[in-house]
Amino acid sequence: MAHKRSSSSRPALDTFREKIDRIDAQILTLLNRRARLAQQIGNTKGKTSAVYVPGRERAILARLAELNTGPLPDESVQAIYREIISASRALETALRVAYLGPEASYAHMASKEQFGAKAEFVPVETIPQIFSAVENGQADYGVAPVENSTQGSVALTLDLFIETNLHIIAERSLAIRHCLLSRATKRERIQRVLAHPQSLAQCQHWLATHLPGVPTEAAASNSRAAELVRRDPHAAAIAGRLAAERYRLNIIDADIQDQAANYTRFAILSRTWQPGAPSGDDKTSLVLSVRDEPGVLYQVLRPFAAHSMSLLRIESRPLKGRPWEYVFFIDVEGHVGDQALADALREIEPCCMSVKVLGSYTSFGSATGSARQKR
């Protein structure tokens, strides 16, 4: 009976597969038509305009989320179109993107999510090298960590914004999802665990509960831990899914971090910045140095409140070479093209020694989430 059911279902399967083949042919034709239009747009813009326009890409993804009726989830549609856009963009030019390596790090994951697979990713060893690569033209863009939801701000990145003339043109918020990776297929075979010390600390409770007594070892990075684990069938590494793919390791357990809400925010760096038009869902990053006067910080912040703008973040950093003087990093809702923000910036000038706009941009971290919630 089982054989008869299998034989009777064969014509139906063949029919479905033929339909899929026809649809694939249509999709391929449309993809190439889309790519040719993208090339024409590139030729129309000329060499003086930026090839990479993150605000436009976010608008495309948000519009697709509005149009999507399933069964594909928005996240899948977003991933598919990210690669379509990346491949089309590569027909104009190959973007070089510097990130904090090594390969298969979380910074690498954020870079691929932002630019797609067709960009050329350049791993560097330190955050200053990211800034230097972009400044010197060795990379078109950089991806630098700015803030972690559990560890706080990355002070070195903030200091480099003071010392360089780079701009923020976008941001990417990446969920840090630690996995236990190994050549082994069962947790019981693990005899030691390797990871960066920060990752070991973030998974401390999980390790004590699920691998009690198993020794841990610090590695220079999670990617390096995954690389070392390839040589030992009884060792495991804590790293992301990209490391599992890169080093061909099994994911024994996923999401082993002690805190589920663990995110790192990355800034997308560029030598140039074209503000573009406000999208209605923007953020502006500022660096302010203020006069040493009583109540000056209140005077600086008051115009933002008066114009009904929310401050998303404020942080002080010491001004190098000038003891007891500080600069303030401020993220505020709005775009420099908005009248309210323009007015606020004008009003704070008398209180400040300098006002530097790092950039106005929309977040790529959840380009489709708000659209889905509207339905």
Summed up, what is this model?
With 375 residues, the protein is α/β, with parallel strands linked by helices. Helices cover 43% and strands 25% of the residues.
- How would the global form be characterised? globular
For the record, what is the CATH homologous superfamily label of the domain at 2-89? Chorismate mutase
Computed CA radius of gyration, to the nearest angstrom: 24 Å
Derived structural class: alpha/beta
CATH class of the domain at 2-89: Mainly Alpha
| SSE ordering | HHHEHEHEEHEEEHHEHEHEEEHEEHEH
Largest sheet: 6 strands, mixed
- Cα(first) to Cα(last) distance is 46 Å
Describe this structure in words.
- This protein is an alpha/beta fold.
- Among the domains are: 88 residues, Chorismate mutase (Chorismate Mutase Domain, subunit A, Up-down Bundle); 76 residues, 3-Layer(aba) Sandwich (D-Maltodextrin-Binding Protein, domain 2), CATH 3.40.190.10; 88 residues, Alpha-Beta Plaits, CATH 3.30.70.
- It is built from 13 helices and 15 strands.
- The radius of gyration is 24 Å and the shape is globular.
- The C terminus is likely disordered.
